[in-house]
Amino acid sequence: MTAGQIPPESAAGPGAVQLIGHTVFTPPAGIDFDTDADAGQALVEFAGRAIYRSWDKPIPATASNAGFLRHLIEVGHLSVLEHASATFLLQGIPRSVSHELLRHRHFSFSELSPRQPVSGAALPAALRADPELAELADTAVRRSEDSYREVLKALEAKASGAVQHKQARQAARALLPMSQPTDLVMTGNLRSWRHFVGMRATDPADVELRELAVEVLRQLQALAPNVFADFRISELADGSMLAASPHVRDA
Amino acid sequence: MTAGQIPPESAAGPGAVQLIGHTVFTPPAGIDFDTDADAGQALVEFAGRAIYRSWDKPIPATASNAGFLRHLIEVGHLSVLEHASATFLLQGIPRSVSHELLRHRHFSFSELSPRQPVSGAALPAALRADPELAELADTAVRRSEDSYREVLKALEAKASGAVQHKQARQAARALLPMSQPTDLVMTGNLRSWRHFVGMRATDPADVELRELAVEVLRQLQALAPNVFADFRISELADGSMLAASPHVRDA
Amino acid sequence: MTAGQIPPESAAGPGAVQLIGHTVFTPPAGIDFDTDADAGQALVEFAGRAIYRSWDKPIPATASNAGFLRHLIEVGHLSVLEHASATFLLQGIPRSVSHELLRHRHFSFSELSPRQPVSGAALPAALRADPELAELADTAVRRSEDSYREVLKALEAKASGAVQHKQARQAARALLPMSQPTDLVMTGNLRSWRHFVGMRATDPADVELRELAVEVLRQLQALAPNVFADFRISELADGSMLAASPHVRDA
Amino acid sequence: MTAGQIPPESAAGPGAVQLIGHTVFTPPAGIDFDTDADAGQALVEFAGRAIYRSWDKPIPATASNAGFLRHLIEVGHLSVLEHASATFLLQGIPRSVSHELLRHRHFSFSELSPRQPVSGAALPAALRADPELAELADTAVRRSEDSYREVLKALEAKASGAVQHKQARQAARALLPMSQPTDLVMTGNLRSWRHFVGMRATDPADVELRELAVEVLRQLQALAPNVFADFRISELADGSMLAASPHVRDA
Question: What does the entry list as the binding residues for dUMP (chains A, B, C, D) (predicted)?
């Protein structure tokens, strides 16, 4: 892909979401542990059982991986979820959304450099849905980009050396809009992802972030169904999606 | 101050920086500890001595607070600096700068809500310094604000209820520029502030953030001179400031 | 105080607890903010209001510092509590208790070096309360200390140089009991302290840690009553204390 | 394995070390990225390139995964290492060593419950190596365990209910030695593991922890050779191992 191009998927909504990394489990030698799940789910169960060396499973309700993890989540023993992690690539999301994501301090981020020129805008659905507003927004974005280019040209004409060219790009982007698209590689453990989904998939006010969080949840439910089984996805009156769990409390 | 107004200082540069919180020390009963500094500096020395219960000071080089803290910093025993913290109010900084600040995960932040309407722009010095560019930038910002208001009006006309009005403001701000001003209350311990200054006051490329970091350093040197004594502030060829210490290594 | 001596208070129970550091507030210039509390409580309120620049106080229920902080805690908006911190000196606590404290990763710790010789033991109340058990425990501790000294003597006889003497002390302490006393300087922000108290002042099983957490809570309620007003301290059937809040949820 | 038994390997030294979890990489659709490594190493390279969307590799020195990661480490751009993690099971290590491990706050831990009865001791090599000291230590440990059992029996005779039995075990273990064995599941990202190895594999004073860190390094070098290539393992005069890297600075 050429620098500056946004992948086509991102035009469709809150940005493309792809799972690109997760944890796998290698059972240790010398311990008689076995379970009916693998990868991160097996590692989490192993860690939970290691606390009491309870490798045998006398209680039917917690003998399966699903039952054991359900119990952990119900009693709030979430620290063992930290042993498994998941990494997402988020493409073409607005900088205003990545700004909110960066507040989640338990995650690790690699973001597209702000000095990297990216054309176009990741506009909210509310603007894209209405032809008149979309037209108005597109014009506004185009004008901002024109100003950016004009200012950048003037600054670069005076610049010499790599540092000054960086400074020029840094200064000119002050005129680009908040909806400027960015990419993010975002890694967190499953406890942090539960917290993230619990906070962000439920906030009715912030549509873009909520839709992103619901898509992340969908992919996490495919990756680790027993860790995210308590979340239910539903549709709001305006057609947007929301997810909630009885085991997630605010803050 | 009325909502939406930027304090006049912020017009002058990278935003106003004010120290609004710091740690004070209450000597504990029953321990014969005394030193020639107070507040956070005394607390840090106390914690450093508590590790060996070394309340007497047989070595002249580390008998003063300045000498003791210099030694800690030279040998890299920085964890004791975590006991003292400092809080800054940063007013009128561009959202693009607060975006970079949020990456520093060891700090605590309270930021002006993005749904709070703020007029004007916190433009980089490179744009403000040149009358033609300043004119061009001001026009671009004004146009973006006009688009913001037009879109907001259209969205609010269709909105009902508090949530939909929040959504309207959220969507419309996609058109505001990256230089939109914001305020930040930012708290960190002195180890984190040393790390922050070491990374940000030295990067030649990012002028706005560097000038902010140098101003933070100046105020930290007034608050806790013995903790920041090794940083030297100097002027670059372009008139901007930079700070560095022999005891700060990259990353 | 001479190295190796435990302050007399620590003989009485779970170790002496003293508040030795906290955050103070300096109102910034240029903002018309005033409140009826000071120090950390005022800083937290300031940060909470900065998010909306809501310096005027139209709603009576949140016009006072107590009312504003009560509201923050009720709605779970706890991140602003991170701007104020508190530091405790814990003296003469058992290493087994400091082991549990170290699990709280949001705190900063300076602990008495394990190579620092400390005599005596910080025994649990259950042992101290019964004369026969106390006698038995004292004998056991004395014997462990005798073994420690014998082994240390043998190792030091063979050691040469500072490193080998450190290694000798390190190896010999393998024989000292888990109740070996230690000191800890422990710093955290008020959000972390609420979380700590919420987890540790409520666990019926771990008496020593619970009593320590209740004493920490008492001193935090004196320091910042509006931040800890929702915690109630009560006495259990066995005479030990417990604290709980309706706003603290498990995990 | 029956509760209370230590696996035979742990008798041999600083405890058994086994890698039981790590990150794998799934290349995203729509991006033309390819490399000559897989799993965590590929994910780290992907994240590093995503910052500039630099999928093509014009510079030979950084065209291979080894070259790209070497460059990241040399320039100190370590945050991208956070996307890949590794989990170790540490069995039969002394509680005094797990105490030091818990200080590393960027890791996630699941430790064997202190209320879980474990017999035997994880004695330092310095004691095990000398027959007379080993005999002396074994006697001391046996005596401590006798006292533990005697006190536990007396406390349990008076206890009623699950909570009081937990309290009895909690109190009695005050008499067990610091060398009491424990197990730990320890997860961290590769940046944290580099920091851990850099601090702990180099400290001449703490032999047990150093040997553990060197063994962790060996397994990390097998898992992700390009991330740990700069560490060299060497033997000290006393036969113990040490590891160091020119790119790791103290603290």
Answer: 100-103, 111-115, 173, 200
Spatial distance between the Cα atoms of B86 and C24, rounded to a whole number of angstroms: 10
Mutate to test the interface with D, among C93, C107, C112, C178 (most CBs of D within 10 A): C178
Q: Which of B3, B16, B28 lies nearest to residue C53, judging by beta carbons?
A: B3
What CA–CA distances, in Å, run from A159 to B211, B238, C42, C87, D120?
19, 11, 47, 50, 71
Place of tokens 């020129």: A117
How far is C-alpha D159 from the geometric centre of its chain's CA atoms? 37
Residue B112 contacts C, CB cutoff 8 Å:
yes
Residues 147-166 of chain A whose Cβ lies under 8 A from any Cβ of chain B: 147, 150-151, 154-155, 163, 166
The C-alpha of A72 sits at a distance from chain B's nearest C-alpha, in angstroms, of: 28
* Cα D126 to Cα C170: distance, rounded to the nearest angstrom: 10
CA distance D248 to chain B (A): 10
- The number of CA neighbours under 13 Å toward the Cβ of B15 is 31
To which H or E segment does residue C132 belong? Answer: helix C131-158
Query: What's the full length of chain D, in residues?
Result: 251
Residue D6 pLDDT more than 70?
A: no
* Cα dihedral value D184, D185, D190, D192, nearest 10: -40
Interface ipTM:
0.93
Residue the block writes with tokens 């989490």: A44
Q: State whether residue D23 sits within 8 Å of chain A by CB.
A: yes
- Alpha-carbon distances, residue C202 vs B178, C12, D129, D203 (angstroms): 47, 22, 45, 39
Task: Taking residues D43-72, report their average pLDDT.
Answer: 96
Q: Tokens 């740690």 identify what position? A: B23
Q: Which of C95, C200, C210, C249 is catalytic?
A: C200
User: Is C200 part of the annotated catalytic residue set?
Assistant: yes
At A160, is the pLDDT very low, low, confident or very high (cuts 50, 70, 90)?
A: confident
The helix-helix angle for D207-223 and D95-102 (nearest 10°) equals 60
Chains contacting C with at least 3 CB pairs below 8 Å?
A: A, B, D
Query: Are residues B214 and B241 in contact, defined by beta-carbon separation less than 8 angstroms?
Result: yes
CB C248 within 8 A of CB C198: yes
**B191 membership: H or E segment, kind and range:** helix B190-200
Q: For residue C83, how far is the Cα from the chain centroid?
A: 19
Interval B53-57 mean pLDDT: 93
Which chain B residues contact residue A136 at CB under 8 A?
A: 147, 150-151, 154
From D101, which residue of chain C is nearest by alpha-carbon distance? C102
Torsion of CA D174, D179, D181, D185, to 10 degrees: 100
Q: D110, A80 in Cβ contact below 8 A? A: yes
Q: What percent of chain C has pLDDT over 90?
A: 80
Q: Give the 3-state secondary structure percentages of chain A, helix then strand then coil, rounded to 5.
A: 50, 15, 35
> Nearest by CB to D251, which of B77, B250, B251?
B77
Distance from CA of A91 to the nearest CA of B (A): 17
What's the confidence (pLDDT) of residue C57? 92
Q: What are phi and psi of D240, to 5 degrees?
A: -85, 165
No. of helices (H) and no. of strands (E), chain A:
9, 6
Which pair of tokens denotes residue C12? 């009485």
Chains in contact with chain D (at least 3 beta-carbon pairs closer than 8 A): A, B, C
Subunits close to A (at least 3 CB pairs below 8 A): B, C, D
Mean pLDDT across the stretch C46-51?
A: 97
| Residue at token pair 């991330």 | D227
**Catalytic residue from among D70, D95, D169, D200:** D200
**Nearest-neighbour CA in chain B from A251: distance (Å):** 15
Q: CB neighbours of C6 closer than 8 A, spacing ≥ 6?
A: C91, C92, C118, C119, C120, C122, C181
